[in-house]
Amino acid sequence: MKENYIVCNCKQIWYADIAHAIEKHDKFEDVEKVFEDVQKETQCSTGCGGCHNKVMDIISEILNSPSKI
Ligand code: FES
């Protein structure tokens, strides 16, 4: 697991919070859908929205890594 850091400043959501929310998924066809679920679960990207791309990058990175987390 990578170093933990704050991804969403508005909601104080950490990388580990997002990684944990993604872990609950076992179907990964739709990154946007995963994003919505992660957003619902963690409240990330519900403030200024400035972290949207960062969250998307993290989702893609985790979903594309062979061992996930
Ligand atoms: S930094 Fe995530 S919503 Fe503002």
Helix and strand layout, with pairings?
Layout: E1 6-8, E2 13-14, H1 15-23, H2 31-42, H3 52-64
The structure holds FE2/S2 (inorganic) cluster.
Residues 8-11, 44-51 line the site of FE2/S2 (inorganic) cluster (FES).
Name a few traits of the molecule.
mainly alpha, Arc Repressor Mutant, subunit A, 49% helix, binds FE2/S2 (inorganic) cluster
What CATH first level would be assigned?
A: Mainly Alpha
Tell me about the biggest sheet? 2 strands, antiparallel
Rg (C-alpha, Å): 11 Å
Give the tally of β-strands.
2
Number of domains: 1
End-to-end CA span? 6 Å
- Average the pLDDT over all residues and give the rounded result: 88
Helix content: 40-55%
Low-confidence stretches: none
**CATH-assigned fold name:** Arc Repressor Mutant, subunit A
Structural class: mainly alpha
The share of residues in extended strands comes to 5-15%
Give, in order, the helices and strands: EEHHH
- What shape does the CA trace take? globular
| CATH level-two architecture | Orthogonal Bundle
Largest sheet, spatial ordering of strands: 1-2
Helix segment count? 3
Ions and ligands: FE2/S2 (inorganic) cluster
Describe the structure in your own words:
The chain is mostly helical. It has one domain (6-64): Arc Repressor Mutant, subunit A (Orthogonal Bundle). 49% of the residues lie in helices and 7% in strands. It has three helices and two strands, in the order ββααα. The protein has helices spanning 15-23, 31-42, 52-64, and strands spanning 6-8, 13-14. A two-stranded antiparallel ribbon has the order 1-2. Helix 2 packs across helix 3 (52-64). The longest helix is centred in the C-terminal third of the chain and has 13 residues, at 52-64. The radius of gyration is 11 Å and the shape is globular. The model has no long low-confidence stretch (mean pLDDT 88). Bound molecules: FE2/S2 (inorganic) cluster. FE2/S2 (inorganic) cluster is lined by residues 8-11, 44-51.
